[in-house]
Design goal:
The complex is a heterodimer.
Chain A (H helix, E strand, L loop, with lengths): L2 H15 L1 H11 L14 H15 L3 H14 L4 H8 L5 H6 L4 H8 L7 E6 L4 E7 L8 H16 L2 E10 L2 E10 L17
Antiparallel strand pairs in A: 1-2, 2-4, 3-4
Chain B lengths: L2 H13 L3 E4 L5 E4 L9 H4 L4 H4 E5 L6 H5 L6 E5 L6 E8 L12 E6 L4 H8 L12 H36 L8 E2 H13 L4 E9 L1 H8 L1 H18 L5 E4 L4 E7 L4 H16 L2 E3 L2 E3 L2 E8 L10 H17 L5 E3 L2 H12 L1
Parallel strand pairs in B: 7-9, 13-14
Antiparallel strand pairs in B: 1-2, 1-6, 3-4, 4-5, 5-6, 8-10, 8-13, 9-10, 11-12
Classes of the chains: A alpha+beta, B alpha+beta.
Chain lengths: 199, 345
């Protein structure tokens, strides 16, 4: 699994629950080291071990942990660069949703060996959308839950009001249900095109 | 503007929002919505194009004919008003008759080129200010994404560098005493030679150390070595390098020292400290030390004399030992002759 993904899990736990809790999880997962390197690759089993450790130490289900990681990725001030990269997807939330098909390509542009599952959005009328994620079941389910957290936080960011549900899935696929109640519910967060370019 | 011309302007607004339609006299008949962000619309429409934009390359132009002659070529413009921004442009003459825009006029399409970030900042542009097919927003995305990825890689490199430095430091350090070890000797000397720094090299052997080891065990020996290292540190300066090069053998490199009397003084103070009785678990241990020194400034070409300096300090050390131990000798050429005489006899 890419170090960025492992690092995201690590930073979420450290920033939310503290280093002590992270140390407990590391010990439980038997990592043998305390920090993931964002730009290195790791065995997929390590990610599963860490998540299993987190479930036990935090006494929470994997789904809710993954969803919180998704929210953390977009809303934590430390990760503002990531939020900005996502905001480049579209000028409003609907355009952003429609740009999700491009997400794996956009991720690869930034980090060539970062694999994001293929995503496919379909509109069902009445402001209802369905997002299909092609997640290899072998890699362990869960990407859809991270995405629920990401989309929920992005909707806030754009100022849209949405109802989001993980609608299960099947072999190698997870389905998200998205209902857009209001596209301009609040003013959302600022997005300056050139703000990330330094001075 | 005629109905047909207005239709064209509307079309162009969507396809190339940074365009200007010029009339036959070179005045702006219509400006696209993004171009119009450069200055108030009422100031732009009707203004002479070359009064708002300076044509810098390929040639300065004054008249509409000059401009129309540049059809199809890449143009470099600069806004004359604030904010001063460079622009790229291309111009297409419009046909006579007014069926397509102002008769005898021209269409100029512009972009911010490489200064796009600055322009976005100055004009507060958003993605909506660019045509849907324009790759500017993707380019900005790419710059940010790559910057973030580069930063992550840079941090990784820094950490790897730190880890390497720590590993090297460990490899050059004697873990028992915290002094440098034999492996560090060559790099230290090489560095002194390279920086042409003079130094005194002192070889120091502990006396009676074997007796302490035999009588009280290795733990006592280790304790004595640690105290010896502390004694040497106490009598030397921070810039001096202390090495434990063997079991009870030490090398002191006193950088910048060129005075034999000073070397003697330092060495004798170290020896005096080492001779103070050491208490090991209630048992008194007594050691001493013999030392010999050599000065790099005494060699015409110190850079080539590394081995010789070591050897001469070693000869001086043996002179100190033969003089009854517990003392220091500076190397003298006569010592070498003495030794050679002993060898041949």
């Amino acid at each position: 699994m890419h170090g960025l993904i492992n690092r995201a899990i690590e930073r979420f736990i450290r920033d939310t629950y503290g280093r002590d809790v992270w140390a407990l999880i590391v010990a439980r997962a038997g990592l043998g080291f305390s920090e993931f390197e964002a730009m290195l690759s790791y065995e997929p089993a390590l990610t599963c071990d860490v998540l299993a450790g987190a479930e036990q130490v935090l006494d929470r289900t994997r789904d809710t942990i993954l969803e919180d990681i998704g929210t953390y990725l977009v809303s934590h001030p430390k990760l503002d660069p990531l939020r900005r990269l996502l905001r480049f997807g579209g000028v409003d939330f609907v355009e952003f949703l429609q740009s999700l098909d491009e997400l794996p390509g956009r991720a690869r542009l930034a980090v060539p060996d970062l694999d994001i599952p293929n995503l496919e959005l379909s509109a069902h009328g009445g402001n209802i959308y369905q997002l299909r994620c092609d997640v290899p079941t072998a890699a362990g389910p869960g990407f859809g839950h991270v995405l629920v957290g990401v989309l929920r936080a992005m909707a806030d960011d754009y100022g849209a009001l949405v109802v989001l549900d993980h609608a299960g899935g099947g072999k190698d696929v997870e389905i998200l249900q998205i209902q857009l109640l209001s596209e301009a519910y609040s003013s959302g967060k600022m997005f300056d095109l050139a703000a990330g370019q330094g001075t | 503007m005629s109905g047909a011309a207005e239709g064209l302007a509307g079309l162009l607004d969507q396809l190339c929002p940074m365009h200007a339609l010029l009339d036959a006299t070179g005045h702006i008949a219509h400006a696209g919505p993004t171009l119009a962000r450069l200055c108030p619309k009422e100031e732009m429409t009707g203004a002479r194009f070359l009064e708002l934009f300076e044509l810098r390359r390929p040639a300065r132009s004054a008249t509409m004919d000059d401009l129309r002659a540049l059809a199809g070529r890449g143009l470099h413009l600069m806004t004359r008003g604030a904010p001063r921004l460079p622009l790229k442009a291309v111009l297409t003459p419009l046909p006579e008759g007014g069926t397509l825009g102002p008769s005898g006029g021209a269409l100029v399409n512009m972009s911010f080129g490489i200064a796009v970030t600055e322009a976005i900042r100055q004009l507060n542009l958003t993605a909506r200010d660019f045509a849907a097919t324009d790759l500017t927003v993707e380019m900005l995305y790419l710059i940010e994404a790559k910057t973030a990825a580069m930063e992550a890689s840079r941090l990784l490199n820094l950490r790897l560098q730190g880890a390497k430095a720590a590993a090297e430091e460990q490899a050059f350090t004697d873990t028992l005493t915290g002094l440098k070890n034999r492996r560090a000797l060559d790099p230290v000397l090489t560095q002194l030679m390279a920086s042409e720094t003079d130094f005194a090299l002192v070889q120091l052997d502990l006396d009676y150390f074997k007796e302490v080891n035999d009588q009280f065990g290795h733990a006592a020996g280790d304790h004595v070595l640690q105290l010896a290292a502390r004694a040497m540190r106490a009598e030397t300066r921070k810039e001096d390098v202390l090495l434990r090069v063997g079991g009870d053998e030490f090398v002191l490199i006193l950088s910048g020292v060129t005075d034999a009397a000073r070397v003697r003084d330092i060495a004798e103070r170290v020896i005096a400290r080492l001779e103070a009785p050491i208490d090991y678990e209630g048992q008194p241990c007594q050691i001493s030390a013999s030392a010999g020194g050599a000065l790099s400034c005494r060699y015409p070409h110190p850079q080539a004399a590394e081995a010789r300096i070591m050897e001469d300090a070693d000869i001086a050390l043996y002179a100190a030992k033969s003089a009854g131990r517990g003392c220091f000798r500076n190397f003298e050429p006569s010592m070498r002759q003495d030794r050679e005489a002993r060898r041949s006899s």
